[in-house]
Write a structure and sequence with these properties.
The protein contains six helices and no strands. With 173 residues, it is mainly α. The protein has one domain. Helix 1 packs across helix 2, helix 1 packs across helix 3 and helix 2 runs antiparallel to helix 3.
């Protein structure tokens, strides 16, 4: 199977960011400034892309998604401009339950998405043949002689006249 770590990592990052927000709100939290999360999403995506190839097993997928949930949860809590953010760092049991449910649902969705993408890619490869090398040439391609630029007669005689005067053996011979 071909390497799809970049695409898989990007999907992991987007799923983790989206579902962390959903789980955070469903658990009783609030989503702060989304603009900052959009800016930080590529940083999370870099981590997920680097881990995507190593997390092919269901357990690895759940671990990577859970790590993303935890990181983004604390990021949302720290970015929330509230004075009572201290106790919210840990979150209650409902927050933990919602993040756990969202992590498991996104892992199942990602697992099925892996199989769906593999099936679509296999069907696409059957329909569209790939040619890595150009087809062999049966006969040499025809070439056309292109005449060079014509020099004016006066310019040509100046070049040729100078060349013929300087020809001959060296003076010291």
């Amino acid at each position: 199977m071909r390497s799809t770590g970049g695409a898989r990592g990007a999907v992991l990052a987007c799923l983790s960011a989206l579902l962390t927000g959903v789980g955070h709100v469903a658990g009783g939290g609030t989503v702060g400034d989304l603009g900052l999360l959009v800016v930080l999403l590529p940083l999370v995506a870099v981590v997920f892309v680097s881990l995507a190839e190593r997390s092919r097993t269901p357990l690895g997928t759940v671990v990577v998604l859970a790590a993303g949930q935890v990181a983004l949860h604390y990021l949302m809590v720290l970015l929330h401009s509230s004075a009572d953010a201290g106790p919210a760092l840990l979150g209650g049991p409902s927050m933990l339950a919602m993040h756990a449910i969202v992590t498991l649902l996104s892992a199942v969705g990602l697992r099925h998405a892996d199989h769906a993408v593999a099936a679509v890619a296999a069907a696409f490869r059957r329909v569209v043949p790939r040619r890595l090398a150009p087809p062999p040439v049966e006969r040499p391609p025809t070439t056309f002689a292109v005449p060079g630029p014509e020099l004016p007669a006066r310019l040509a005689s100046a070049f040729l006249g100078a060349a013929t005067r300087r020809r001959g053996p060296p003076v010291w011979c």
